[in-house]
């Protein structure tokens, strides 16, 4: 049996966007089989040259987030350009009528304007702050509390995340909102006006995970724990030759295996008794983690990275050597992973690029390369 | 006109899950209108008492991620318990036949077993590592490279993220996979066997954002930049009374306004000329950021947090004072945000909880509280 079509085949999405969240949403919809056209001003949006770049200045960033999309450019300040985009959204058949943008407040592509041309239109506007004012991942994150609990406990100042996690989550929420709204439209014929602030993405996740409930219910928020995992037993250990491993013992079995491996079962049992603790409970393992860390660390410190890796391989405890991006590539993780395939990206080169992480019936959907800016602009 | 039904109304999802990614997927589907039943072993899964907890030990974490779901418990090692779950998935009407789980490898709820009972079943299995072995957010992250570029540049050791960003992304991909697969099933009648490794989630995002392309194309990955934003001008500054602000100047206009605000336009112009730089380009602003930081910092250091906040309020530059979770709550952000509403969660208390960050036609979908463990278990 041949695999069925990708789940979002037949959809046509017009994306007027820039930066991360909105282009990632379009990329994800494209991976799921939608036909996505990114529209940019002539010469490109503010992100067209964004770093990282190749040695000759071509944007790895731009091509990475626009894979598999058509590229149309237009003078978005002119009536002609605006009318063209409106028609692209409105006249795109039963699977069309979908606008994705992070450029809110433009009346010519507002939900009101577009729904007058096509009543069942689905629009998604990604905003910055909840109140509609501009905000980006790093400002939203600074305002929310995570930088205050990130980083070494000896470091008093806030530490930003490196991954723009809120942009990523926001882009995935946007793709989900479109996919869900399409399902409803196909059932009932109604469109949707969807607004999605980056700040609300962050607040919603922080609420679901309890970070914003603790101050309300317990009277105080969480403190930083450095590289120790909050609420269970997990931390990092250095080896004799400068390697470092992240270790997580989520279950009593993981923890017993870690003690057996490191040979400190008797010492830990003595401490457990002396403290009146029960290390079968993850909260007790967390509460007394500094003592446990101290008992376990010497085993790692006395061994080479290779010996530690070999020993952990045979244990149930969850573990991972810290690696750099260079090492991930050099270790061959990409070439052995079926999600990755060779992509020939004009201007950048040929490299291994990832498809959708969710495999459908064993298949990782991939897209082609990014098109050159404006390559699909209709000729007059 | 009354608003139409939520976009995933009519769906029935059975969730056999624990920890973060899978429960977050179920919560998100529930927010979008699906009827979600979480199934746990009798007494609860490994996450039933997980921190954060209230003063009397009730899990804020568990209730936060299971809001709006039914709760069924069963002896999942018994034939009866397994058969009950199979029937819940198979006999759930046209919107049913959906299993979401992070507990792969159980043949009694495998796609093969369930599709024999219901050919159009949609199953999503969230895995740890790509090869199917266990992995959690903190081990996946350690292996990928982000901790090596997080944290103060003066700190050589890797820094874990505080937010389990890969769990969050994985949960949202899972919800999107289900929503998309449902759309296809309603179009064509086919189900889907979906597998989604947490590690592939992280690798796919790292690939799309260029982190894994740089080593392949440029021969080396990215280095850490501390709290400076990579590739543009953004950093943090301390005020006279110990406050700290994140500042991002994405566009030439933002940067000009920042120079005007801080009164260093002439000095920056002199440096620009001396260095042969063009600070109208974000790559030049990034390359010479240490010099720019040094010129701009004294303005912040000489002023109180309140004065800095008032001045930034009038500027176009993107800015945000770093806050703790306690301050976010104390500042009233939740009570003025329409995404939040009062939730009376038995065992926890009444507090403001977030709904879905994407508002549909102005409405933030919310769910009720989490049910008590096993409250919806069918009586024999």
From TrEMBL, chains A, B:
Keywords, sorted A to Z: Transferase
Classification via Pfam families: CoA_transf_3 (PF02515)
Keyword Repeat attributed: no
Molecular-function GO terms, alphabetical: transferase activity
Presence of keyword DNA repair: no
Protein name, as recorded: CoA transferase
Species per Swiss-Prot/TrEMBL record: Gordonia aquimaris
Lineage: Bacteria, Bacillati, Actinomycetota, Actinomycetes, Mycobacteriales
């Amino acid at each position: 049996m041949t695999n069925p079509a990708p789940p979002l085949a037949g959809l046509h999405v017009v994306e007027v966007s820039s930066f991360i969240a909105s282009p990632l949403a379009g990329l994800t919809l494209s991976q799921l089989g939608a036909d996505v056209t990114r529209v940019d001003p002539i010469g490109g949006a503010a992100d067209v040259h964004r770093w990282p770049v190749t040695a000759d200045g071509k944007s790895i960033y731009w091509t990475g987030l626009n894979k598999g999309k058509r590229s149309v450019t237009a003078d978005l300040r002119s009536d002609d350009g605006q009318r063209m985009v409106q028609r692209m959204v409105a006249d795109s058949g039963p699977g069309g009528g979908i606008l994705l943008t992070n450029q809110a407040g433009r009346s010519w592509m507002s939900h009101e304007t577009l729904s007058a041309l096509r009543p069942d239109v689905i629009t998604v506007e990604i905003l910055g702050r909840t109140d509609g004012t501009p905000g980006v991942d790093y400002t939203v994150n600074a305002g929310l509390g995570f930088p205050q609990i990130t980083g070494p406990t000896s470091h008093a100042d806030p530490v930003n995340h490196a991954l723009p996690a809120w942009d990523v989550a926001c882009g995935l929420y946007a793709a989900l909102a479109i996919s869900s709204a399409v399902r409803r439209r196909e059932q009932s014929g109604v469109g949707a006006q969807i607004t999605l602030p980056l700040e609300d993405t962050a607040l919603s996740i922080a609420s679901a995970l309890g970070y914003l409930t603790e101050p309300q219910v317990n009277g105080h928020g969480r403190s930083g724990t450095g590289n120790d995992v909050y609420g269970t037993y997990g931390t990092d250990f250095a080896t004799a030759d400068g390697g470092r491993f992240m270790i997580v013992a989520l279950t009593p079995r993981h923890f017993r295996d870690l003690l057996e491996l490191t040979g400190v079962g008797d010492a830990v049992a003595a401490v457990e008794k002396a403290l009146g603790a029960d290390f079968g409970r993850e909260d007790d393992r967390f509460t007394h983690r500094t003592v446990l860390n101290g008992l376990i660390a010497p085993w790692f410190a006395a061994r080479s990275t290779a010996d530690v890796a070999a020993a952990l391989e045979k244990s149930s405890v969850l573990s991972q050597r810290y690696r750099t991006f260079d090492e991930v590539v050099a270790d061959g993780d990409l070439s052995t992973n079926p999600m990755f395939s060779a992509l020939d990206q004009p201007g950048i080169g040929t490299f291994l690029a990832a498809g959708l992480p969710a495999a459908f019936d064993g298949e990782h959907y991939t897209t082609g390369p990014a098109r050159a800016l404006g390559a699909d602009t209709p000729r007059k």
